[in-house]
Amino acid sequence: MGRPASNWEKVHQGLKKGPWTPEEDLKLLNYIEAHGHGSWRALPAKAGLKRCGKSCRLRWTNYLRPDIKRGNFSLQEEQTIIQLHALLGNRWSVIANHLSKRTDNEIKNYWNSHLKKRLTKMGIDPVTHKPKTYSLAPAGQRKDAANLSHMAQWESARLEAEARLGRDSKLQAPNSFHTQLGFYPTAPPPCLDMLTAGQAGCLRSPTDSATASGIFSAAGNLESLTSTMNFAPRNPLPTLVTGLSFASNSSAQIEEAIAMKEDIGKSMDTIMALSRNDHAYVAESLKTVNENILQPDFLDGLSDLLFQNSDDFNSSNSKVDCENVGGSCSDDQLEENKNYWNSILSLLNCPPSGSPVF
DNA sequence: AACGACGCCAACCGCTACTTT
DNA sequence: CAAAGTAGCGGTTGGCGTCGT
User: Could you give the CA distance from residue A223 to residue A202 in angstroms, rounded to a whole number?
Assistant: First the structure.
């Protein structure tokens, strides 16, 4: 008798499961090289494979794709994964988007089998990326960290948008080789610094969330941002606006900066250009909208904000952490922490391909 | 040499989001 | 606008290799 077959079993009756043989790999590879993958569901029959389309897609994306880097992770890659995981959590596909040539599955496995344990050994909670004693910290220190958390929320959303645009751009700008194969390798997502600025400008009060929502909706592909941020009710004064105050020392300057950044929100053309990877248009448009947004001062201010927060954090929680692991906090370690956040910033401000948009 | 414990990683499978009809 | 189809994501599983006893 036994249990009734599940839906999956009904659909996949007679299909092979388990490890792929070299013959199967070859069939799949040959077929995709000749015809592209097209519809994954239809592919197995056409390619002469007794597998489901999903299995073929997974085998291709995680193993056979020619643009996959295999082997040990470099120190740089490890650092990137840890930093992005601190911002994004288990959003492996978004993280993978920033580690060219690595698959989300590979990163996920590496995290679970290596990095998670390493962080745990170091006394860091791999989920929150905070020292395990963090919850005992005084309220003021937690507030500083909360600011960082807000920052992370924004950057998380931005990275998600980048990943989305990256995916979309694969569909929009294939080269002949990829057209032939029917797939597109990881394309450099356009730099969304303007979105960061847009967020800062448009979200200075809870009521402005509607404006932001409109912008993201108009951008079409960015719509899901609104669903992941949860910004307005909980964050009446988003951290990035505070970040602006580091770039502009007087309130008049802040207002001016905010007003200018709202121009970006109004510039739907610019956003649409961004979503279609029309970098030249975006660059030109931004120049006319607000020349100050992407000035180094602004980003430095943002960076300072992080440093200030992390310095506070250093002087309290991180020191606790240092003591926890059996040492004391030196200036070097503080500097290291500062560099940690600096590297996050630089990571976020540079497309993974290293190709500057502006 | 045999066995069990453990770790790694490819693949599975269910769920969700997105697209098409 | 709803339903159906499709693709993508992420948690989980199971097989295989390695190491220790």
Answer: 15
Q: Which residues contact A97 (CB under 8 A, 6 or more apart)?
A: A159, A162, A163, A166, A167, A186, A189, A352
Q: What three-state secondary structure class fits A308?
A: helix
pLDDT for the residue A210: 33
- Which two three-digit tokens encode residue A26? 């070859």
Give yes or no for CB of A39 within 7 Å of strand C. Answer: yes
| A54 contact to strand B (CB, 7 A limit) | yes
| Nearest nucleotide over every DNA/RNA strand to the A63 CA, judged by C1' | B10
Q: Classify residue A56 as left (phi > 0), alpha (psi -120 to 50) or beta.
A: alpha
Q: What local confidence, expressed as pLDDT, does residue A101 receive?
A: 82
The kind and range of the H/E element at A85 are helix A75-88
Cα A308 to Cα A192, A253, A280, A283, A328, distances in angstroms: 24, 21, 35, 31, 20
User: What is the Cα gyration radius of chain A?
Assistant: 23
pLDDT band of A149, cuts 50, 70, 90? low
CA dist list (Å): A290 to A162, A201, A230, A249, A256: 22, 12, 27, 18, 10
User: What tokens appear for A236 in the block?
Assistant: 């009446």
| Nucleotide in closest CA–C1' contact with A18 | B11
pLDDT (tens digit per residue) in A292-334: 333 333 333 333 333 333 333 333 333 333 333 333 334 554 4
Strand C within 7 A of A113 CB: no
Residues in contact with A296: Cβ distance below 8 Å, sequence separation at least 6, in sequence order: none
- Do A98 and A160 contact (CB within 8 A), yes or no? no
C-beta of residue A344 within 8 angstroms of C-beta of residue A83: yes
Q: How many angstroms separate the CA atoms of A345 and A306, rounded? A: 9
| φ, ψ dihedrals at A247, nearest 5° | -85, -30
Closest CA to A96 of A85, A76, A53, A182: A85
**pTM of this prediction?**
0.53
Closest CA to A211 of A255, A154, A265, A283: A265
Q: Separation of CA A121 and C1' C16 in angstroms? A: 27
